[in-house]
Design brief:
By secondary structure, this protein is of the alpha/beta class. It contains nine helices and seven strands; from the N terminus they run αααβαβαββαβαααββ.
């Protein structure tokens, strides 16, 4: 199902994530050995560095990256937007939601391809581990660029195909053999956790995603790899 496109992909992904939402956070921690928390904190700090104002997390899921943004110096308000009420309910009821550092975090339903915000509404926008699941990646990046003010920053944290080599082979073995089994045992959904690793195979290379940033009109585009090369933090700025 990782090859799906357009509305078919949108519907399939929405139904899948609604289904696995109760075990979503637990599975993320198990699959990454807890490292996804560190990667999200690092992404938030990089995204917000030197900026002051409101921040946006697109396809926020259960809100970890939105909360991390809210804790950054200079960020006075963070908004998480997601299509699924199941994910947003979990985000709004997390212990972090009562943290005084994240009291200014809010969550609303919305489509990454048609963000419900005016132009230039945020100083930065990010998306974590969600681009692979979107029906139109260039449109999603263009929307993030639209709602960011001139001089603001757009970032994404995403699994990406690894350069050929032993690490790539080991990564494929882990994600294609062990993750589906883990999904069956922990989440009771082998199908979902077969789709998620397979979606990386159909996703853009790191340089390919950087080119999407450039086509969206962003400048100073770049990326760096995390997680032994299997995760990429991309960044770009909206021209002043």
């Amino acid at each position: 199902m990782a090859h799906l496109r357009g509305d078919d992909k949108r519907q399939y992904v929405a139904e899948m994530f609604a289904r696995i939402s109760p075990r979503y956070d637990l599975m993320n921690s198990l699959m990454t050995g807890g490292l996804h928390h560190r990667w999200k904190r690092e992404t938030a700090r990089f995204t917000a560095a030197g900026l002051q104002g409101a921040a946006l997390d697109v396809a926020t899921g259960t809100g970890d990256l939105a909360f991390a943004l809210a804790r950054c110096p200079g960020i006075d308000r963070a908004v998480g937007v997601d299509l699924l009420s199941e994910m947003l309910t979990i985000a709004a009821n997390k212990p972090a939601a009562s943290d005084k550092c994240t009291a200014s975090t809010s969550f609303i339903m919305g489509d990454a391809l048609q963000l419900p915000f005016p132009d230039n509404a945020f100083v930065c926008a990010t998306a974590g581990f969600s681009l692979r699941n979107m029906a139109d990646v260039p449109a999603a990046i263009a929307e993030m660029a639209r709602v960011v003010s001139p001089g603001g920053r757009v970032t994404t944290l995403e699994l990406t195909p690894m350069p050929p080599g032993i690490r790539a082979a080991l990564g494929r073995l882990y994600f294609h053999r062990f993750v589906p089994l883990m999904g069956q045992v922990v989440a009771g959904d082998r199908t979902a956790y077969t789709y998620l690793p397979s979606s990386v195979d159909y996703f853009l290379t790191a340089e390919g995603l950087a080119e999407v940033y450039r086509q969206a009109g962003l400048v100073n585009v770049g990326y760096r790899r995390l997680g032994l090369g299997g995760v990429a933090l991309h960044h770009g700025e909206k021209p002043r």
